[in-house]
Write a structure and sequence with these properties.
Blueprint: E1 5-9, H1 14-24, E2 31-35, E3 41-45, E4 53-57, H2 64-80, E5 85-90, H3 109-120, E6 124-128, E7 143-146, H4 149-159, E8 164-168, H5 174-184, E9 187-197, E10 200-207, E11 214-221, H6 226-237, E12 243-249, H7 256-262, E13 267-271, E14 285-288, H8 291-302, H9 309-312
Parallel strand pairs: 1-4, 4-5, 5-6, 6-7, 8-9, 8-11, 11-12, 12-13, 13-14
Antiparallel strand pairs: 2-3, 9-10
Helix pairs in contact: 1-8, 4-5
Length: about 325
């Protein structure tokens, strides 16, 4: 194990950063992150990191551009302070939804952000539930991709629900839904929908048996929650009993909270890869911490141990 371990972070998710440091029995790295009068990020590392194995915890969530710049500048400062190795810990990797050219003259922002992180000086990346698995290949540095599935599975197993079926709200999420169904030893169903635009989707068919079943809808991201709510309503119309939602990254922007409150979803379980602000903490939303998973991964990377065991626990 490398003796000199340090964990720093920006302002994106200070609560999660504190939890990780507590589990690792470390003090949070001392850095001042401020703003110049024109809004530019001003940063200074206040402790010696020469030769240290440094982990930078920062989700690139809202405000995405500010949090991304904090991450890049923090990495650059640590590199120039002669840190031995810098690992960017991205509980939520933003800009991931544009991961291919599906229309003429559009960017591939996921690749652009991967290039920026590596160019800033990161030696490796640790992240959770990427929007698309192929984004791993956009990085020219090592990337460890963790999955939140076991955190959610433990929670739902404790509920001891019967007649359970796992549902993917779209065809693209079938791989994630299958992972949940395997661990629950439950049935699997898919909501087949046709997307009208990036804000609206029309539900078409339910593939699988959901009548009389308790349902857990699983997805990686809930932004405006339109697809999730429409999928839940379609399942209810097809005879489903209690409907739960399970989402790793609670982006929850625009009308998301209002939609969830009015929906047929009984409970929505999310992780804290993105902080759920006070006005979004409604009774229907249950937050589970991803800190133990990330702390364990950081400890293993620092000790030069394999983290593949974290995929199978």
């Amino acid at each position: 194990m490398r003796d000199k371990l340090a964990v720093f972070g920006g302002n994106a998710n200070t609560e999660l950063l504190g939890e990780i440091c507590k589990l690792l029995r470390l003090k949070k790295g001392d850095a001042d992150i401020m703003r110049f009068t024109d809004g530019e990020v001003q940063l200074k590392i206040n402790e010696n990191v020469r030769g240290h194995d440094v982990f930078v915890v920062q989700s690139t969530c809202f405000p995405a551009n500010d949090n991304l710049m904090e991450l890049l500048i923090l990495i650059d400062a640590l590199k120039r302070a002669s840190a031995d190795r810098i690992t960017a810990v991205l509980p939520y990797f933003g800009y991931a939804r544009q991961d291919r050219k599906d229309q003429p003259r559009v960017p591939i922002t996921a690749k652009l952000i991967a290039n920026l992180i590596a160019r800033a000086g990161a030696n490796r990346v640790l992240t959770v539930d990427l929007h698309a698995g192929q984004i791993q290949g956009f990085f020219d540095i090592p990337l460890d991709h963790l999955f939140a599935v076991n955190i959610f599975v433990d929670y739902f197993i404790a509920k001891k629900m019967e007649d359970l079926v796992i549902v993917s709200p779209d065809v693209g999420g079938i791989k994630m839904a299958r992972a949940y169904a395997k661990r629950f030893k439950a049935g699997l169903a898919i909501v087949d929908k046709r997307r009208i635009n990036d804000k609206k989707a029309e539900v078409m068919n339910i593939l699988g048996e959901v009548e009389g079943k308790n349902v857990v809808l699983v997805d990686d991201i809930a932004a405006t929650a339109g697809s999730l709510v429409e999928a839940a309503q379609a399942l209810k119309n097809n005879g489903a009993r209690d409907i739960y939602a399970c989402v790793t990254h609670p982006v929850l922007c625009g009308p998301a909270i209002e939609r969830i409150e009015k929906s047929v979803i009984k409970e929505m379980v999310v992780s804290n890869t993105i902080p759920v602000e006070g006005h979004k903490k409604i009774d229907k939303i249950k937050i589970l911490s991803i800190a133990p998973l990330l702390a364990n991964a950081i400890k293993r990377i620092n000790g030069e141990e394999s983290i593949s065991i974290l995929f199978d626990e």
